[in-house]
Design a protein that fits this description.
The protein has helices at residues 19-30, 58-67, 81-85, 111-115, 125-133, 220-231, 240-255, 268-281, 299-310, 321-327, 334-356, 368-374, 389-392, 411-420, 425-428, 448-467, 520-533, and strands spanning 47-52, 71-76, 89-94, 120-123, 137-153, 167-180, 186-190, 198-200, 205-208, 260-264, 285-291, 314-319, 361-363, 401-403, 476-490, 493-506, 514-515, 537-542. By secondary structure, the chain is α/β, with parallel strands linked by helices. It has 3 domains: 19-40 and 239-428, Rossmann fold (3-Layer(aba) Sandwich); 47-231, Rossmann fold, CATH 3.40.50; 447-542, GMP Synthetase, Chain A, domain 3 (2-Layer Sandwich), CATH 3.30.300. The protein has a 9-stranded mixed β-sheet with strand order 2-1-3-4-9-8-7-5-6, with helices on both faces. Helix 7 packs across helix 8 (268-281), helix 7 (240-255) packs across helix 14 and helix 16 (448-467) runs antiparallel to helix 17 (520-533). The radius of gyration is 26 Å and the shape is globular. The chain starts with 18 loop residues before the first helix and ends in a 13-residue tail after the last strand.
C-alpha cells in the first residue's frame, strides 16, 4: 500500500494488525477505554427536549446540547405528551422560528411544557412564546436586530450566566420585542437595541432573545451548559461508551434470537452499525459486501481485512463489478446512474440474502439528520427538505424489520461511538462517500478506462491531503473526471487529455458546505502529480463553489 504509518502512530486500515492494536487507537482518540467483553448496563439517559418551531438552527440546538453530554431530541411543536413523556425529559428548550406570536396561526408551546414544572429555556421566538403565553406582551419592533450585538448583564444573579463576564458578544436575529414582562419575571440582560434581551423567573424558566447555539455567540456553549447542569440538574452521561452500551442492549432486546443482515459499504455509518449489531447478537448477523466496481482503490481489501479477518464477522463478499459496468453502458444522466446503481445493488443484495435462509431483520446506518430531513410534515412550522435513501427508499414489499442503532445520532457522535467500540481510526474518520460511488464522479458515461483514471487521480488527492494533515478538517475531498478534454503539451508532443476537477469542502452535516481554501502549494503538488502520474489527464482545475447554490457532488 502506498500510504505509510504516520509519525503520530496511525495504523492504516489495510495493515495486517490485530484488534488489540485498533483498540489502543480507539482508547487514545476517544479518551476512554473501549468496551469490555462483559458489558455493564448503561446509566439511565438524561433528555432535554427541543420543541421545534421551524428555526433554521433547531437541529443545531440539539447538537450543541449533546456536545455537553446530555441527550437531546427534536420534536414538533404539536407532538403529543405521550411521545414526549416517553423520553423522560429533564427540561425543555423552545426553539426560534419564523412566526410572530401575535399572529393568528402562530404555533404555540403545548400546555404540558408549563404544566410539567420542568425547567424551560426559550430562544428567540421561544422567548417571545414564554412572554406571550405567561402574561407578558410582545410587539413588532421599529428596527430589526440581526447580527452581532453586545449583551450586558443586569445586576441580577442567574444560573444561566454563571461564571460569565458581565458583557459578551451574542448573535441576534429578530424583529419582535418584549414590551412587558410576564408576572414574576425580571430582565436579566440587555443590548443597545433590546432592553429585555434575557429574562427569568428564578424558578427555572428563562428566555434568551439571542442564539446561544451558533458559533457567533462567544459564550453560547457555556450558557447552554449552565442551563443543562445548573438549572436542569443534568449529570452529563451521554458519552460514546454509554451510547454504545445502550444501543447494544436495545439491539439484543429487539432481535432476540432472530437473524440480521447488513449491507457493508466500507463507510463509517455501515461499519459502526455492523459492529454494534455484532457485539449485540454475534453470529446472528451476516454482513453482505457488494463490490460494484465503483469503489476507490484498495477499498474492498480494507473492508475484508477489518471485518472478516480482524473482527471475525460472518461476511459474504460478492464481486459484481462487470455486472454493474454492463448496466451502466450508455448511461449519461446522473439520476439514471443513481437509479441503475441502486436497483442493481438491491438485486445483488437480495440474491445473496436468499442464500442465507430465514432472515428477520435488516440493519442499516440511518442517521438523525436523515430522519429529520425525511420525516413527514409532522410539524407545520418547518418544511420537509428531502427524502433520504435510508429512510424513504426502501422496497415497499420488504418484509424485514429494521434495526437502526444510529437513528438518533449525528455523524460526529457516530465517529465517537465507532472509536469506543474498537473500530480503526482510518475507518471511523473516513470521509463520506456516495452510494453510487465513482459513477457520479465521472461526468458522462462510466467506462472501465475512466474508472481507472479516476481511481488513480482520487488516490493522489487523498494521499496529498493526508500528508498535509488536512483530511480530518475537510468534510470531503475528492477528484471528478469531467467530460471535457483540452489540448496540452507534454515533452515535445501535443496531447488531448481529460480535465480533472478537484473538490474539497468544509461542513458540519452536509446540509450546507463551503469550498475549502486549500494552500496553493498543496494544489500545485496535487496538480503536478496528477498530470505526471495519471495517463490521459493533462489539466487540473479546482472547484470553488459552495452549497448552496451548488451541491457537494457534481452529479
Amino acid at each position: 500500500m502506498e500510504e505509510e504509518k504516520s509519525k503520530s502512530g496511525r495504523i492504516a486500515a489495510s495493515d495486517d494488525v490485530e484488534v488489540s492494536a485498533y483498540l489502543e487507537i480507539a482508547k487514545a482518540k476517544a479518551g476512554e477505554k473501549p468496551l469490555p467483553e462483559e458489558l455493564a448496563p448503561a446509566p439511565e439517559r438524561e433528555t432535554v427536549v427541543v420543541i421545534d418551531f421551524g428555526a433554521q438552527y433547531n437541529l443545531l440546538i440539539a447538537r450543541r446540547v449533546r456536545e455537553c453530554h446530555v441527550y437531546s431530541d427534536l420534536v414538533p411543536h404539536d407532538a403529543p405528551w405521550e411521545r414526549v413523556a416517553a423520553l423522560k425529559p429533564k427540561g425543555f428548550i423552545l426553539s426560534g422560528g419564523p412566526s410572530s406570536v401575535y399572529e393568528e396561526v402562530a404555533p404555540m408551546a403545548p400546555p404540558y411544557v408549563y404544566e410539567s414544572g420542568l425547567p424551560v429555556l426559550g430562544i428567540c421566538y421561544g422567548m417571545d412564546l414564554l412572554a406571550h403565553q405567561l402574561g407578558g406582551k410582545v410587539a413588532s419592533g421599529k428596527r430589526r436586530e440581526y447580527g452581532h450585538a453586545v449583551l450586558h448583564q443586569n445586576s441580577i444573579e442567574s444560573p444561566i450566566f454563571k461564571d460569565l463576564p458581565p458583557s459578551m458578544t451574542v448573535w441576534m436575529s429578530h424583529g419582535d420585542y418584549i414590551t412587558e414582562l410576564p408576572p414574576g419575571f425580571r430582565a436579566l440582560a440587555y443590548t443597545d437595541n433590546s432592553p429585555i434581551a434575557a429574562m427569568g423567573n428564578g424558578k427555572g424558566v428563562i428566555g434568551l432573545m439571542f442564539h446561544p447555539e451558533v458559533a457567533h455567540t462567544t459564550h453560547g456553549k457555556t450558557i447552554l451548559k449552565n442551563f443543562l447542569y445548573e438549572v436542569c440538574g443534568c449529570k452529563g452521561n451521554w458519552t460514546p461508551s454509554n451510547v454504545a452500551l445502550e444501543n447494544i442492549a436495545r439491539i439484543r432486546e429487539q432481535v432476540g434470537k432472530g437473524r440480521v443482515i447488513c449491507a457493508l459499504s466500507g463507510g463509517v455509518d455501515s461499519a459502526v452499525t455492523a459492529t454494534l449489531v455484532h457485539k449485540a447478537v454475534g453470529d446472528q448477523l451476516t454482513c453482505i459486501f457488494v463490490n460494484n466496481g465503483l469503489l476507490r482503490r484498495e477499498e474492498p481489501e480494507r473492508v475484508l481485512n477489518v471485518f472478516q479477518r480482524n473482527m471475525n464477522m460472518n461476511l459474504i463478499y460478492r464481486d459484481a463489478s462487470e455486472r454493474f459496468l454492463h448496466k451502466l453502458e450508455g448511461v449519461v444522466d446522473p439520476e439514471l446512474k443513481r437509479r441503475v446503481v441502486g436497483e442493481e445493488f438491491i438485486k445483488v443484495f437480495e440474491e445473496e440474502a436468499k442464500k442465507i435462509g430465514q432472515v428477520d431483520f435488516l440493519a442499516q446506518g440511518t442517521l438523525y439528520p436523515d430522519v429529520i430531513e425525511s420525516q413527514a410534515p409532522e410539524s407545520k412550522a418547518s418544511a420537509k427538505i428531502k427524502t433520504h435513501h435510508n429512510v424513504g427508499g426502501l422496497p415497499q414489499k420488504m418484509t424485514l424489520s429494521l434495526v437502526e442503532p444510529l437513528r438518533y445520532l449525528f455523524k460526529d457522535e457516530v465517529r465517537d461511538v465507532g472509536l469506543a467500540i474498537g473500530l480503526p481510526e482510518e475507518m471511523v474518520w473516513r470521509q463520506p462517500f456516495p452510494g453510487p460511488g465513482l459513477a457520479i464522479r465521472i461526468v458522462g458515461e462510466v467506462t472501465k478506462e475512466k474508472l481507472e483514471i479516476l481511481r488513480a487521480t482520487d488516490w493522489i488527492v487523498m494521499n496529498e491531503v493526508k500528508k498535509a494533515n488536512l483530511y480530518r478538517r475537510l468534510w470531503q475531498s475528492f477528484a471528478v473526471l469531467t467530460s471535457s478534454k483540452s489540448v496540452g503539451v507534454m515533452g515535445d508532443y501535443r496531447t488531448y487529455g481529460y480535465v480533472v476537477a478537484i473538490r474539497a469542502v468544509t461542513s458540519e452535516d452536509a446540509m450546507t458546505a463551503d469550498w475549502a481554501r486549500l494552500p496553493y502549494e498543496l494544489l500545485a503538488t496535487i496538480s503536478n502529480r496528477i498530470v505526471n502520474e495519471v495517463p490521459g489527464v493533462n489539466r487540473v482545475v479546482y472547484d470553488i463553489s459552495s452549497k448552496p447554490p451548488s451541491t457537494i457532488e457534481w452529479e
